[in-house]
Specification:
By secondary structure, the protein is of the alpha+beta class. It has 3 domains: about 10-130 and about 150-190, Beta-Lactamase (2-Layer Sandwich); about 230-330, Signal transduction histidine kinase, dimerisation/phosphotransfer (DHp) domain (Helix Hairpins), CATH 1.10.287.130; about 335-485, Heat Shock Protein 90 (2-Layer Sandwich). Helices cover about 55% and strands about 15% of the residues. The chain has 12 helices and 14 strands. The chain has helices at about 5-10, 10-80, 125-130, 145-150, 175-225, 240-275, 275-290, 295-330, 340-360, 375-395, 430-435, 455-465; strands at about 85-90, 95-100, 100-105, 110-115, 120, 155-160, 170-175, 335-340, 360-365, 370-375, 400-410, 415-420, 465-470, 475-485. Strands 1, 2, 3, 4, 5, 6 and 7 form a 7-stranded antiparallel β-sheet that branches. A 5-stranded mixed β-sheet has the order 9-11-12-14-13. It has a two-stranded antiparallel sheet with strand order 8-10. A hairpin with a 5-residue loop joins strand 1 (about 85-90) and strand 2. Helix 2 (about 10-80) packs antiparallel against helix 5 (about 175-225). The longest helix has about 70 residues, at about 10-80. It holds the Pfam family HisKA. InterPro entries: HAMP_dom (IPR003660), HATPase_C_sf (IPR036890), HATPase_dom (IPR003594), His_kinase_dom (IPR005467), HisK_dim/P_dom (IPR003661), HisK_dim/P_sf (IPR036097), Sig_transdc_His_kin-like_C (IPR004358), TCS_sensor_his_kinase (IPR050428). Its EC number is 2.7.13.3. GO terms for molecular function: phosphorelay sensor kinase activity.
Length: about 500
């Protein structure tokens, strides 16, 4: 979905890009002015230092040989390549010697450093210019005209001194090199500023547009999900960036929500179908009791049966609520260090009389010292449900009924297995269905139960970040509770 420019500028990414670009531009402009000013001051300082050295050398020459030696030294230095500006003038400012042909008016009137750069022409530049650009009037321009022309020449700074005989000496340096250097610095920084601005625009165009496109795709997927399509998922490109991480977390949340909705639907269906039979049986029993004349004993037996049936319904409702809480992750049960060997010992001790009465041998094997992070009561309840099922369904064994509870470590998992030698569940699909709510694979329904034992055990294992596996034991069935190994800190 394409965005117009006003709409794009309303986005956070575009605003941040514009702010960063403005900040970089301001910093670059300030850097241009600072570097230009700094380089100019540095070159001016070096120029003044050079002129001072020249003046000291000329002063020593004047002290040794007076004006004649000073003039010879000035003439000699004036002819050297890349020479500084040298000028000796009379008291009226008339140039006597040096490599300066004309000056901007007023330069020689004040003694000391010139306050501002001045214009000048070197000796012979006027004649060379007239040869290159001949004029109609062959007459020689006057000195004032030359000085006016000098205003269009080079720029320089100089130190003006009065000699003891009131003659004027000027020593200066052309500013062409500092100005060229300053121009180079300015051009380089301006080019860098332009490249930075262009780079910022390109980065925003490619990276920013890609980010906005990703956001549009996520928004479109979110609208579909809000429209009721809970099977929809946010796109993941595999780049591993923050958008992918956000999409993965939201997809996990959506999958969790879908699981909870499915669980809620199952609970509703279970209540509507599986609990209808015991409620109907309760009503029929009460109606049959009230339909005729019965003795006090009959009424008492009917009430006792109703209470027993009601207790079983309450247990069923409690199991359903416990499963729902555990699957939703909202259980208020606290966790701590649980010794699995102690839990096995307690459950086996509890069910030994039941197993002995049913003619089933209850055995244990494994080592002590296996601990997990969890809830002791929940683990005990899950193990109790599994052991109770194993005892009930091992009675039909062709050999001596036996139930074995084993505890061992496999890799980084601690496995608690309950194995019987009964008929087992040979079909893979039936073993997968056995952990669903109210599923009872026994067609005769001769054994008591509500079909919630393994479902509750599976929910408890999910709460402990473990898993519940139903494996064939050949003969019989092995129910394995796999816990992640506890990391001691």
């Amino acid at each position: 979905m394409a965005l117009s420019m006003p709409a794009i500028m309303k986005t956070t990414a575009a605003r941040l890009s514009a702010l960063y670009l403005l900040l970089f531009a301001i910093c670059a402009v300030l850097l241009v002015f600072y570097m230009t000013s700094l380089s100019a001051r540095m070159l001016t300082g070096q120029t003044q230092e050079t002129i001072n050295d020249e003046v000291l050398g000329l002063a020593r020459a004047y002290q040794r040989g007076g004006l004649p030696l000073l003039v010879r030294v000035v003439e000699q230095r004036s002819r050297q390549p890349g020479a500084n500006l040298y000028l000796i003038a009379d008291t009226n400012g008339q140039i006597l010697t040096g490599n300066v042909q004309s000056l901007e008016p007023g330069v020689l009137e004040a003694e000391g450093w010139t306050t501002e750069p001045f214009s000048y022409r070197r000796f012979g530049e006027g004649e060379l210019e007239r040869q290159r650009n001949p004029v109609a009037d062959p007459n020689e321009p006057s000195q004032s005209e030359v000085q006016v022309e000098g205003e269009k020449g080079h720029n320089a700074i100089a130190l003006v001194l009065r000699l003891p005989n009131q003659m004027i000496m000027l020593v200066g340096r052309d500013l062409g090199e500092p100005e060229r250097f300053r121009a180079v610095i300015r051009r380089a920084l301006m080019l860098a500023l332009g490249m930075m601005a262009l780079g910022g625009l390109l980065i925003w165009f490619f990276v920013g547009r890609a980010a906005l496109k990703r956001i549009d795709i996520v928004s479109e997927a979110s609208r579909r999900i809000m429209g009721g399509d809970l099977s929809g998922r946010l796109p993941v490109t595999g780049a591993g960036d923050e958008f992918d991480r956000l999409s993965e977390n939201l997809n996990s949340m959506l999958a969790r929500i879908a699981t909870l909705n499915e669980g809620l639907k199952q609970v509703s269906d279970n209540i509507a179908h599986d609990l209808k039979t015991p409620l109907t049986r309760l009503r029929n029993r009460a109606e049959a009791t009230l339909s005729g004349k019965h003795s006090t004993t009959d009424y008492r037996q009917a009430l006792e049966g109703t209470i027993a049936e009601s207790d079983q319904l309450i247990k069923t409702f409690n199991a359903i609520l416990m499963i729902s809480r555990l699957e939703a992750g909202y259980s208020s049960e606290s966790t701590s260090r649980v010794d699995l060997a102690a839990s096995v010992h307690d459950v086996v001790e509890l069910y030994e009389p039941v197993a002995e009465e049913a003619g089933v041998t209850l055995e244990t094997s494994g080592q002590d010292g296996f601990a997990v992070e969890g809830n002791r009561e929940l683990i005990g309840q899950a193990l109790s449900n599994i052991v109770d099922n194993a005892i009930k369904y091992s009675i039909d064994s062709n050999s001596k009924p036996t139930v074995r509870v084993a505890l061992d470590r496999v890799g980084r998992e601690i496995r608690l297995s309950v194995t019987d030698n009964g008929q087992g569940i040979p079909d893979d699909a039936d073993r997968a269905r056995a952990t669903e709510r109210f599923v009872r694979l026994e067609k005769s329904r001769s054994q008591p139960g509500s079909g919630l034992g393994l479902s509750l055990a599976k929910a408890i294992m999910t709460f402990h970040n473990g898993r519940l596996d139903l494996l064939p034991a050949d003969p019989g069935l092995s129910v394995v509770m796999s816990f992640p190994e506890r990391e001691d800190r």
